[in-house]
Amino acid sequence: VSLLWQRWPLAESGRDGWLRSVLVALVLVGVSAVLLVSLPPLTALVLVGVLLATLLPFFLPRQYRVGPESLASSIGFFSNQHEWAEFRSYRPAPDGYWLYRNPSSPLISRKAPFYLPRPLQPDLAVQLKAILSRHLVMDREAKS
């Protein structure tokens, strides 16, 4: 059984989030105009495309899927999948969980913890807690 949910910080932050996104969009238009005027057209278009691809995740919702073998997160064009073997423990956070990497796992080179936000729906949040408890150990003293 897989658990699927979506979180969109922009929509969840209310009016302030939308105001900030409009300001970022205006800055993006200004930077794009400067690039188009000051650089060769092809170079400017490539740089604007890179800038858009970089900022796109902030404007799109993120989807999470937790299944029996792995967990995955996707946003826009980007997707990450992690096997349960990559993690050793989890720690509750105010709005989600920190998943701590297994230091002996050869599958992962970086040791940074993975943040998994809690679903907003209470029934999904209970199911997520049960799935995490099934696959990982709760670590109250985990250090990042």
Task: Describe this entry's structure for a reader.
This protein is α+β, with helices and mostly antiparallel strands and 144 residues long. The chain has four helices and eight strands; from the N terminus they run βαααββββββαβ. The chain has helices at 9-12, 15-38, 41-59, 122-135; strands at residues 3-7, 62-66, 70-75, 78-83, 87-93, 96-101, 114-117, 137-138. The strands form two sheets. It has a four-stranded antiparallel β-sheet, with helices on one face. Strands 7-6-5-8 form a four-stranded mixed β-sheet, with helices on one face. β3 and β4 (78-83) form a beta hairpin.
Describe this protein with a few key phrases.
28% strand, 4-stranded mixed β-sheet, 4 helices, alpha+beta
What does the secondary structure layout of this molecule look like, with pairings?
Elements: E1 3-7, H1 9-12, H2 15-38, H3 41-59, E2 62-66, E3 70-75, E4 78-83, E5 87-93, E6 96-101, E7 114-117, H4 122-135, E8 137-138
Parallel strand pairs: 5-8
Antiparallel strand pairs: 1-2, 2-3, 3-4, 5-6, 6-7
Helix pairs in contact: 2-3
Rounded Rg: 19 Å
Model regions low in confidence, pLDDT < 50 over at least 5 residues: none
Coarse shape:
elongated
- The helix/strand order is EHHHEEEEEEHE
Query: Averaging pLDDT over every residue, what do you get?
Result: 85
Percent of residues in β-strands: 25-35%
Q: Describe the sheet with the most strands.
A: 4 strands, antiparallel
Question: How many extended strands?
Answer: 8
Class per helix and strand makeup: alpha+beta
Main sheet: strand order: 1-2-3-4
Helical content band: 40-55%
Our measurement of the CA-to-CA distance between the termini, rounded to an integer number of angstroms, reads 30 Å
Total helical elements? 4
